[in-house]
Amino acid sequence: MKTIEVDDQIYRYIASRTLHIGESASDILRRLLALPQDADTETAVFALSDHEAATEQANGNSVDVLAALLNDAQLAREESAIARFMLILSALYRSQPDAFRRAADIKGRKRIYFAEDPQALLDNGTTTKPKPVPETPYWVITNTNTGRKRLIIKQLMQVMGYSAETIAEVCNKV
Questions:
Q1: pLDDT tens-digit profile of 137-170?
Q2: Count of structural domains within the chain
Q3: Which residues contact 43 (CB under 8 A, 6 or more apart)?
């Protein structure tokens, strides 16, 4: 596999043509150039570095921020559902801070899920085990099973406007 350097405009163009999370840069270019798929070719997953993710976030391309997260080795290395849950929440906030703020009002039947103060979460249940969401002003309850964590992410992403396909892919990473 060869490495090529492209300017930011070309990079954004290729990234904006991604059809699904995890699609490689080679696959995107093959599709755009109408080249045949070569099954014997090695491909690298199209992922964003931290700097590129920040650039894409500034450009409002939240799907690319999530693509970077889903392809991130750190997420794959995490053995704890809580750690993966926190990484995903942090990426969602970085991708669309304003939409996250609006969506953070979601709640369950008896509990609120997010607050800017851990005491607000404790006031809604003494066993909520609030933890701070990294790189955000929010705290989230963590004393829930993995299914509930997935439901929280699903509800949050629905309010934020993500597609059902993207939501399913992210939820499967918890």
A1: 999 999 999 999 999 999 999 999 988 988 998 9
A2: 2
A3: 1, 24, 26, 27
Whether residues 9 and 44 share a domain: the answer is yes
User: Domain range holding 134?
Assistant: 79-174
**CA dist., res. 95 & res. 76, Å (int):** 20
Strand partners, 112: 107
Please name the residues in contact with 155: beta carbons below 8 A apart, sequence gap of 6 or more.
Answer: 103, 106
Which token pair is 118?
A: 């851990």
pLDDT value for 38:
61
Q: 163-174 pLDDT, tens per residue?
A: 898 899 899 988
Which residues are paired to 115 by β-bridges? 139
For the chain, residues with pLDDT lower than 50 are 39-60
Region of 155 on the Ramachandran plot (φ > 0 left; ψ -120 to 50 alpha; else beta): alpha
Yes or no: say if 167 and 157 are a contact pair by the CB < 8 Å rule.
yes
CATH code of the domain covering residue 30: 1.10.1220.10
